[in-house]
């Protein structure tokens, strides 16, 4: 592929990703990436960290995420190309900054599929202890890789079916919790402020829980990497980004509220499997079985979306020669998908064979929050660059909202555990050295973005 310049038509032999996704499909893709059902997988840990105010923790995290989602929407409308925070930073600031944000974002994109597959394998291993855990990991990787190579449209069909099942299980869980509360305390028990407010719980404790709850929202921005495959991307992608954050937040808050009413307090036999304890309490053994099946489906759907996103981020960086173009910029001539990048994401996922969930999740948060901060700063810079032009933004949407989002994201970044900060800093330093090498100690700029 050759590089084109802004305002020029692409060469006739230029390969492009295929536009097939409307707003409902993009929404399903983003929600699958977030895996709303996993709210129950982390409920016990979050409940303990927030002093049993998990619903408020999710609500506070949503407020912070929405400001960033609005910034993503503005930039997706202004730059309708694949690449996410990497593309936006590159176009708004410069090629060097864009590369470093893209490199940092790889922490999130690269290792999130691995974490998803690892958690799914852990659930299956608990249900079928006689089957070696590595078999489940390899099965997840092979199935999701094949679906993503065959095309985003085929993968999307699976996502829609899996998301319907997943959302149905969340709805049933909430209804069972409400039925349990009514049976124990009457209809009046459904109205309570305790999931949101406890006089004895300091705000700082709830805020600490919000930092954990914010991790559940990772993925609301992933659909920005599908801009080149979305129909009418200037409208579809910005709307989808904000709607995914809001819909995901509503699911998290409602689920946490109902669960806390059914099981007041943050004491569980095992915080890591607290939702199973509550599921058995409100629905019995039959529902526990359905709940486990739903969790596995959620991990599968989320794995499809996460792997597709990392494939397209690598494609954007390869297309720009920020990474070797022959490999990373390759698009399969028949399926029109970045096949080699998808395969690479699958190979990286094999690292899960040697890691546990706690270690692997420490990789993904540093890059995500750094990218979120950069996106908000991009909007602020665009606000000043566009002053007095037809593309000028208002002071609220162009300055105030992204400033609040940037501050919130920096706070979330600083709230990460020390191990995650150290690993993130090491990864970022490695990217800085690589950038210095490919640009001859910053004397040259990385290749310009193909538009």
Question: Could you give a quick summary of the protein structure above?
Answer:
By secondary structure, this protein is mainly α.
Q: Topology, please?
A:
Layout: H1 23-34, H2 43-49, H3 54-78, H4 85-92, H5 95-127, H6 133-150, H7 152-185, H8 203-213, H9 233-262, H10 274-319, H11 325-328, H12 339-349, H13 357-361, H14 364-385, H15 395-414, H16 418-438
Helix pairs in contact: 1-7, 1-9, 1-10, 2-8, 3-8, 3-9, 3-14, 3-15, 4-5, 4-14, 5-6, 5-10, 5-12, 5-14, 5-16, 6-7, 6-10, 6-12, 7-9, 7-10, 10-12, 14-15, 14-16
Number of domains: 1
What integer value in Å does the Rg equal?
Answer: 22 Å
**What's the CATH architecture name?**
Up-down Bundle
* Major sheet description: none
Strand content: under 5%
CATH superfamily: Amino acid/polyamine transporter I
Percent range of helical residues: 55-70%
Shape: globular
* Average of per-residue pLDDT values: 81
Number of DSSP helices? 16
Low-pLDDT segments: 1-14
Number of strands: 0
Distance between the termini: 12 Å
Order of helices and strands: HHHHHHHHHHHHHHHH
User: Class in CATH?
Assistant: Mainly Alpha
Indicate the CATH topology. Answer: Amino acid/polyamine transporter I
- The secondary structure category is mainly alpha
Subcellular location: Membrane
Pfam families: AA_permease
GO biological process, one term: transmembrane transport
InterPro entries: AA-permease/SLC12A_dom, APC_superfamily
């Amino acid at each position: 592929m050759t590089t084109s310049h802004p305002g020029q038509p692409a060469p006739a032999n230029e390969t492009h990703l295929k536009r097939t996704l409307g707003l409902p499909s993009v929404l399903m893709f983003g929600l699958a990436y977030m895996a709303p059902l996993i709210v129950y997988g982390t409920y016990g840990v979050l409940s303990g960290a927030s002093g049993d105010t998990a619903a408020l923790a999710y609500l506070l995290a949503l407020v912070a995420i929405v400001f960033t989602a609005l910034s993503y929407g503005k930039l997706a409308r202004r730059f309708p190309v694949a690449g996410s925070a990497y593309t936006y930073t590159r176009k708004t600031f410069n090629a060097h900054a864009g590369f470093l944000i893209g490199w940092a974002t790889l922490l999130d994109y690269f290792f999130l599929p691995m974490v998803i597959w690892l958690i799914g394998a852990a659930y299956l291993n608990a249900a079928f202890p006689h089957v070696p855990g590595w078999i489940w990991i390899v099965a997840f990787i092979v199935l999701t890789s094949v679906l993503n190579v065959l095309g985003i449209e085929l993968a999307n069909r699976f996502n829609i079916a899996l998301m319907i099942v997943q959302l149905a299980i969340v709805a049933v869980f909430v209804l069972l919790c409400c039925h349990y509360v009514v049976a124990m305390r009457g209809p009046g028990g459904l109205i309570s402020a305790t999931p949101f407010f406890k006089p004895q719980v300091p705000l700082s404790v709830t805020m600490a829980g919000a930092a954990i709850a914010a991790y559940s929202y990772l993925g609301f921005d992933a659909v920005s990497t599908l801009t080149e495959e979305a129909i009418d991307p200037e409208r579809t992608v910005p709307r989808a980004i904000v709607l995914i954050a809001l819909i995901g937040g509503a699911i998290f808050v409602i689920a946490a509220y109902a669960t806390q009413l059914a099981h007041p307090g943050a004491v569980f036999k095992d915080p890591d499997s607290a939702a199973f304890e509550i599921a058995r309490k409100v629905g019995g053994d039959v529902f526990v079985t359905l709940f486990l099946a739903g969790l596995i489906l959620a991990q599968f759907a989320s794995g499809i979306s996460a792997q597709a996103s990392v494939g397209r981020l690598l494609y954007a960086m390869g297309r720009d020669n920020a990474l070797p173009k022959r490999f990373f910029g390759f698009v399969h001539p028949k399926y029109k998908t970045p096949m080699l990048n998808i395969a690479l994401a699958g190979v990286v996922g094999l690292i899960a064979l040697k890691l546990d969930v706690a270690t692997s999740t420490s990789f993904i948060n540093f890059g995500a929050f750094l990218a979120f901060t950069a996106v908000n700063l991009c909007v602020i810079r665009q606000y000043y660059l566009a002053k007095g032009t037809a593309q000028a933004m208002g002071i609220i949407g162009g300055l105030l909202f992204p400033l609040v989002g940037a501050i919130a994201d920096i706070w979330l970044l600083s709230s990460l555990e020390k191990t995650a900060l150290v690993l993130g800093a090491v990864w970022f330093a490695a990217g800085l050295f690589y950038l210095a090498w490919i640009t001859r100690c910053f004397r040259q700029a990385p290749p310009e973005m193909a538009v």
